[in-house]
Specification:
The complex is a heterodimer of chains A (520) and B (948). By secondary structure, chain A is an alpha/beta fold. Helix content of chain A is 42%, strand content 14%. In chain A, strand 14 and strand 15 form a beta hairpin. Chain A starts with 7 loop residues before the first strand and ends with a helix. In chain B, helix 9 crosses helix 26 and helix 13 packs parallel to helix 19. Classes of the chains: A alpha/beta (520), B alpha/beta (948). At the A-B interface, helix 17, helix 18, helix 19 and helix 20 of A face helix 2 of B.
Chain lengths: 520, 948
């Protein structure tokens, strides 16, 4: 228990902060007699380690703090308003935070992630209470009305998925949280779980109640050991305080939750592979139908939702579907926690409503490239997403607008490249990634990825480049129409976008072909 | 794969009763709901290209050749994994689909050797076929890219090799190992392009858990998994459908031939017993049929110390007849007997028993079932009214609680074992009552709910204790019993079993199983599991081969009747028959007191029917059982014996007594493939035919009458029934069968349960399980459906009487015997195949603590001594055993396992008590006297004089 008499200081405990010394910083403050609260990160990677103190007007921040800065911060008597060069002022005044619309990440950074009391103090379990009052079908309708779509990348309407599972009769159903956040440049799941695990847990309980499931699993990637520790503690705390298990919170419902760790395969982020892995098998993509919503984990109706999807649910129930749906544009309602990465000045998590432009994010929040050079390309939506050309920077960030330019928002990962990047390397990488991470089940993905890489190499080496380019485009179709899942089906997507937008990086044949296509 | 392909619908049959209507390429079709588009298309004659799909396996959707388009739907889904839906309109061919398929095939071939002309699968390769179908003309990627062409070949298995370079990673082998066989020996290692099929934990096939059932080889669409014989000989040129001659499962096979040589045995998808599955024996171990040890010419000798002389068939039968006549004249009518074989066809068996009854003129005919399932005949006859299992194999797919007693299906009846395991994986509950922890107790994805490791010899105590629970806890199905059973006998039975002496608590110590486990198991069986389902009992020789074997069979019947589990799909009592035609040999009148169809020889009316047909007067007195024959032979009144296809000297208990009996005979006629142990004592050797040469029928454990067809002509020049017929004629009794069809026709006339059976019907594809008669013209898959064959089900009081064979200070351990997967019975067949790589010699399984107490470590030579004799074998330390119980097999004659078994036998049927022998085990450095003596004699007794 925190000692309320000691001077309190907040030092984030998230994977990124810890990697640059947050534990050291916390230890030093503790040794100096501070009551150190390990909050979660607010997601501004460029400000980490962001150390915070309470003031009468709210939290004030110092950052980026390194362990060596601790003594000077103590010496400056920051708790009493002492001046320090790292002082950032009130958190709520920092534009990076101020200009976000934080719904899913509302509590991130403010609370002690492991404190049920903190959670409850910030409207925690209010959503669950509201859900229980309305009954399962109304819960599903609420989610449907909120317009919430799957945040894992496929953007399938969450309410429709829930309805399918609610309607499936079975002696047992499951809620599975997909926390196998494998897309390069993405980290919103991790931040959510590390900063506010109870929102996810509450979201899963609500989902379980809505669809009739009494058992849930979080499938977490093995590369997140600290997240695993935090989630395990959070789950244990929830059990101890009666918010998991029998008769949750005295509300008359049961829900058990288990954390399972993956084994390092990207493909296990694909929902059916995830189920195989969760069942203890080699993670292999299953054919659909049957949909997991009808025949999922251990053959039972199963909801598989991404962390952000589920963590967004409680807020929808606290404030109502309409107040969530009010954000965004068109069929892309609510907010999406974008993640700025790559060659970017102010990298981090930015939760905003759908509809801002890519430029707003990259140049506004992100402040352009880290190198200061012009942006050459932005890959949006993870390794299977398209590369966006600077001329497309004003595209609104919503599912439909991005689909219209052959792009995808995916899980909201945004990776920026400056003009020194050779995009042919990225194209090759797309195939290579598929070659390594394919589950190996379907032929277009298993062999196509290798042949894609080899054929691209021939194009780049100007070895029968025109003919090989034809072969490559044929291969795109084989993979797109023939693959079993999105892994193989979408692998051509980044490559196509690169060939289209950056022909100069691929040699004469591609330049000729792109020009010819444009003429048509 | 098999060269002469049966139709492959790509995905399994949907068992839904709901029909849906849709159209494929504009053609309307109605199919059961759940039918895949691929299967539906095949039903209207539309072939959709495929590689990873085959109708024995669940759809998988990996090859992506079978993509199709559906009106109003996006994308190109796989037709194997997409079910046809009501009003769906499917297009299977257009330019877009053709391009995708060609693109996929181009990828496949870019990583495949281009050696079609010299490939072992040339002409039998689905990849080759599909490349043709999709019109692949060019692999534009070239062949210089990354590939698996240098991947190594695993030829560790003696019957097939895994050529990884030809693998297309379709997973059919992995899925077959899981879904069909249930062994889970194969998996995919690596990821993405590095994915490759691996056996075990990166082991060779031979070192892995692979049981060599052949399901993977069968499933492989390329040359990757190919039989060694195909690699050596090439593709077959003709096929013959026939029936396996190993265990009582009776699998149907398609023998693939090249001239008169079998190059492959392919399990028949339409086989009623096996539905396309096989085990290592049936699939691969047929090489004994052409083994150099085969004797193909008749031989005679005056004394057993003389060398054999090859003679003509005429000479042999004339010599035998002369001997028999002289003996009969000198010692009387009853001095001669015959033993029929459960390995032979119904027709062969029928002719032998007819020969004894009509030509020899007594009823001294018995069969090897005497030493295995005779208590089944007696016990089920007494209680239910008929001497056979009640179910078909398919029934197990509807069983909710499976009770296995004294049977080891995964070793002894492997193909049925796989079917049982499939049901268990689907959720059925399992109780195993066996002193030994057989595979079913715990194997991949299967765990028995209760394993009751009872002490050998306490079966009846266990069944009584379970019955006690069912009666005293009111778990009896009262309505069923009142409607179907004899209430007087039921009352007597309940009065008996509810006595305190039978309670689990009072019996626990005797049985060696905690009372609670017995109670829980009894409740589970009685209730059929949590959802009140159906319970079925499967048992084997662990039930019958006891001094109370018949009592136990009746105890089982009591239990099943009391809980209302007979006469319905999923329930019943299922004796798992040891040999291919045990059921048939019993049916065909092989018992000294029964004519064909279990009809009593003492019944004047029955006898009159046979007498009229056979034209002789039959003896009204029952003849000798096998043990009586031996006793009388030792005593000197029984002087001649005709043994067809059974090696009594190796398989019957108390070998030294058997040898004494055989050694006393003046004329022993042995008809067999090999100079077996019995033939050491023979005077006439009539070479027999293997199942590949036979023409007739076998009846399996589910009463299914399967055709055995002549795959190759008899290498001896004569069918076995012809030889018996010649012998009968030489004895002066006229038999005039032209072919086995005529024999079956006679059987049908004289045997009511076979009334509707004929080769004509069987050859027309009718699947017949007896009784086949007016009441059941198409046979009877499940018996006793509305009422028991005997009328009212009869409960029998089953008092537990402990065997006299008890452990004591001198013989502190109990030995029980059995068989293993790769070897079969006396091993005459399997020992003459590469199956020996799995078991070269019989071993003694012993619990670590018993071993430690005696200073025995793995592989030590140990001597097993019983009250009857001594043998030496190597020890295998095994936690399958419980302390105090040891186990061995009797596959190898050198071992002489039956030197130590006793002459204890079932009180009702004389079935030997093979399963309980008190023994002591100690370290030794030598073989025993009997083993040494046998070794010295064998050479002498098998000498064949060089032809002059």
């Amino acid at each position: 228990m925190p000692d309320r008499n000691l001077p309190r200081i907040y030092v984030p405990r998230d994977t990124a902060s810890v990697s640059i010394g947050a534990d050291d910083i916390a230890a030093k403050f503790a040794a100096a007699g501070f009551d150190v609260v390990r909050n979660g990160s607010r997601g501004a990677a460029w400000l980490e380690v962001l150390v915070e103190i309470d003031t009468g007007d709210g939290r004030a921040g110092y950052g980026p703090v390194s362990p060596e800065d601790v003594q000077s911060l103590i010496d400056a008597d920051i708790l009493n308003g002492g001046e320090h060069s790292l002082r950032l002022g009130l958190i709520s005044d920092i534009p990076y935070f101020k200009e976000q619309t934080r719904i899913t990440f509302k509590r991130a950074g403010d609370i002690d992630p492991l404190s049920i009391e903190d959670h409850i103090a910030c409207d925690g379990f209010k959503g669950l209470g509201a859900a229980l009052e309305m009954g399962p079908q109304a819960c599903v309708t609420t989610v449907l009305n909120s317009g919430l779509r799957g945040r894992g990348g496929a953007a399938f309407p969450t309410g429709i998925k829930w309805q399918t599972t609610l309607d499936a009769s079975s002696d047992q159903k499951y809620v599975v949280c997909n926390a196998d956040e494998g897309d390069g440049g993405t980290f919103s799941d991790r931040l959510s779980m590390e900063a506010d695990p109870f929102s996810l847990i509450e979201g899963m309980i609500i989902c379980g109640y809505a669809i009739g499931a009494t058992k849930g699993y979080i499938y977490l990637r093995s590369e997140y050991p600290l997240t695993a520790e935090i989630l395990s503690q959070a789950i244990a705390n929830a059990y101890t305080s009666g918010w998991l298990g029998r008769d949750i919170g005295g509300l008359g419902i049961d829900f058990d939750l288990e954390l399972r760790i993956g084994a390092g395969a990207y493909i296990c982020g694909e929902e059916t592979s995830l189920l195989d892995s969760l069942e203890g098998k080699r993670g292999m993509v299953r054919a659909k139908p049957p949909l997991p919503a009808i025949k999922g984990l251990f053959g039972k109706p199963t909801i598989i939702n991404n962390v952000i999807t589920l963590a967004s649910v409680p807020a929808i129930f606290v404030d109502g579907a309409e107040s969530y749906a009010v954000y965004g544009v068109g069929r892309s309602t609510g907010t999406l926690p974008f993640q700025l990465a790559g060659n970017i000045k102010y990298g981090g998590l930015v939760e905003v409503p759908f509809g801002l432009t890519l430029r707003d994010l990259v140049e506004g929040f992100g402040g352009g490239t880290c190198s200061g050079r012009p942006v050459k390309a932005v890959q949006v939506g993870g390794p299977l997403g398209s590369y966006i050309h600077p001329s497309q920077m004003d595209t609104p960030l919503d599912y439909e607008s991005f689909a219209a330019i052959d792009g995808a928002l995916g899980h909201g990962g945004i990776v920026v490249f400056d003009d020194t990047a050779d995009m042919s390397v990225q194209a090759r990488f797309a195939f290579e990634f598929c070659e390594i991470e394919s589950c190996g089940k379907c032929t277009p993905c298993r062999i196509g990825s290798v042949r894609g890489k080899e054929t691209l190499d021939k194009v780049l080496a100007d070895d029968n480049a025109d003919e090989n380019l034809d072969i490559l485009y044929d291969l795109f179709e084989t993979m797109e129409f023939g693959s079993l899942c999105a892994m193989g089906g979408l692998t051509p997507k980044p490559v196509r976008s690169l060939l289209t937008h950056f022909p100069q990086d691929f040699g004469e044949a591609v330049i000729r072909r792109t020009a010819a296509t444009k003429d048509v | 794969m098999g060269s002469f392909k049966q139709i492959d619908f790509g995905t399994p049959l949907s068992k839904s009763e709901e029909m849906i209507t849709a159209s494929i390429n504009g053609e309307k079709i109605s199919v059961p709901k759940g039918t895949s588009i691929m299967r539906a298309a095949k039903m209207v004659g539309v072939d959709i290209p495929k590689l990873c799909a085959t109708d024995s396996l669940e759809p998988y959707g990996s090859c992506r050749l079978c993509v199709i388009e559906i009106d109003g739907r996006r994308g190109t889904p796989a037709s194997c994994t997409t079910p046809l839906e009501q009003d769906m309109s499917v297009m299977t061919e257009n330019a877009k689909l053709a391009k995708i398929r060609r693109g996929v095939m181009e990828l496949y071939i870019s990583d495949h050797p281009l050696d079609c002309l010299t490939c072992s699968a040339n002409g039998d390769c689905e990849l080759q076929d599909m490349a043709g179908v999709v019109g692949l003309r060019d692999v534009r990627y070239g062949y210089a890219g990354d590939n698996h062409l240098d991947a190594p070949t695993d030829a560790s298995n003696p019957y097939f090799s895994f050529e990884e370079s030809k693998c297309i990673t379709c997973m059919r082998c992995v899925r077959a190992c899981e879904e069909t066989q249930g062994t889970f020996a194969l998996t995919v290692g690596g990821r993405g392009f590095a994915s490759s099929i691996t056996a075990g934990a990166n082991e060779t096939f031979l070192d892995s858990e692979c049981v060599s059932c052949g399901a993977c080889v069968q499933a492989c669409p390329t040359a990757s998994l190919t039989e060694a014989l195909i690699i050596d000989n090439g593709q077959p040129d003709r096929t013959v459908k026939t029936t396996c001659a190993y265990c009582g499962v009776g699998c149907s096979f398609i023998a693939e031939m090249k001239g008169n040589e079998v190059v492959r045995m392919v399990p028949d998808k339409d086989g009623g017993a096996n539905a396309g599955h096989s085990c290592v024996k049936g699939r691969f171990a047929f090489g004994y049929a052409t083994h150099k040890d085969r004797i193909t010419k008749p031989m005679i000798r005056a004394k057993i110390t003389d060398p054999w002389q090859e003679v003509s068939w005429e000479e042999a039968t004339a010599y035998a007849a002369t001997q028999l006549k002289a003996i009969q004249k000198k010692y009387g009518r009853k001095s001669i007997g015959g033993i029929t074989s459960s390995r032979c066809t119904n027709e062969e068996v029928y002719v032998v028993q007819k020969f004894i009854r009509a030509a020899i003129g007594n009823n001294n005919v018995d069969t090897c079932a005497r030493v295995c399932h005779s208590p089944t005949g007696y016990g089920l006859g007494q209680t239910l009214g008929t001497s056979a299992g009640t179910q078909d194999f398919e029934s197990v797919e509807h069983t909710d609680v499976i009770l296995v007693i004294g049977a080891n299906p995964t070793d002894a009846h492997p193909v049925f074992g796989s079917r049982m395991k499939k049901r268990l994986r689907a959720g059925a509950k399992l109780i195993v009552a066996d002193p030994r922890a057989i595979d079913l107790v715990r194997s991949p994805h299967i765990e028995a709910d209760y394993h009751l490791p009872l002490m050998p010899g306490t079966n009846v105590a266990l069944i009584n204790a379970m019955s006690y629970v069912i009666v005293t806890e009111n778990l009896v199905d009262q309505d069923y019993v009142e409607a179907r059973c004899d209430m007087v006998s039921f009352k007597a039975w309940t009065d008996f079993v509810s006595q305190d002496a039978n309670s689990p608590e009072n019996m626990a110590e005797t049985i060696g199983v905690p009372a609670n486990d017995i109670r829980s198991a009894a409740r589970l069986y009685a209730t059929g599991g949590p959802n009140g389902g159906i319970s079925g009992i499967y048992y084997g020789l662990g039930v019958t081969e006891h001094s109370q074997g018949s009592t136990m069979v009746m105890g089982i019947a009591n239990l099943a009747m009391a809980t209302g589990n007979i006469g319905l799909r999923g329930g019943g009592i299922n004796p798992l028959r040891g040999q291919n035609n045990v059921q048939g040999s019993c049916d065909m009148g092989s018992f000294p007191h029964e004519l064909p169809g279990y009809r009593s020889v003492t019944d004047d009316k029955v006898r009159a029917e046979f007498e009229a047909n056979w034209g002789v007067t039959l003896d009204s007195e029952p003849g000798y059982r096998i043990p009586k024959m031996f006793n009388e032979a030792v005593g000197g009144t029984f002087r001649a014996l005709y043994v067809q296809g059974e090696d009594i000297a190796q398989s019957d208990p108390d070998t030294q007594h058997v040898e004494a009996a055989l050694g006393n005979l003046e004329c022993l006629i042995v008809q067999d493939l090999f100079l077996n142990e019995t033939a050491r004592f023979a005077h006439v050797f009539l070479p027999g035919t293997s199942f590949l040469e036979k023409d007739g029928t076998f009846t399996n454990a589910e009463r299914r009458i399967n055709r055995v067809r002549m795959v190759m002509p008899p290498v001896t020049g004569k069918h076995e029934w012809e030889v018996t017929q010649d012998l009968a004629r030489a004895m002066g009794y006229e038999m005039g069968y032209e072919n086995p069809t005529e024999i079956m026709d006679e059987i049908a006339i004289l045997t009511p349960s076979f009334a509707g059976v004929s080769f004509k019907r069987l050859d027309a594809g009718n699947d017949l399980q007896w009784p086949v008669n007016e009441a059941a013209p198409n046979g009877t898959p499940i018996m006793h459906v509305d009422k028991f064959v005997r009328g009212k089900g009869n409960f029998v009081v089953t008092e537990f009487t402990p065997t006299t064979e008890k452990a004591n200070r001198k013989f502190p351990l109990l030995l029980t015997t059995g068989r293993i997967l790769s070897q079969y019975n006396v091993g005459a067949q399997t020992r003459r195949t590469p199956n020996n790589v799995w078991l070269e010699e019989d071993v003694l399984e012993i619990h670590p603590s018993d071993a430690e107490l005696r200073g025995i470590i793995e592989g030590d030579l140990v001597q097993i001594a019983s009250r009857k004799g001594r043998i030496s074998v190597r020890a295998q330390i095994s936690e399958r055993m419980q302390p105090g119980v040891v186990y061995t097999t009797f596959h190898h004659p050198e071992t002489g396992a039956n030197v130590i078994t006793t002459d204890n036998a079932d009180w009702a049927t004389d079935c030997p008590e093979y399963k309980v022998t008190a023994v002591q085990v100690r370290l030794t450095n030598s073989k025993t006297e009997w083993q040494e003596e046998r070794k010295n004699q064998v050479r002498q007794q098998r000498l064949i004089e060089a032809p002059k």
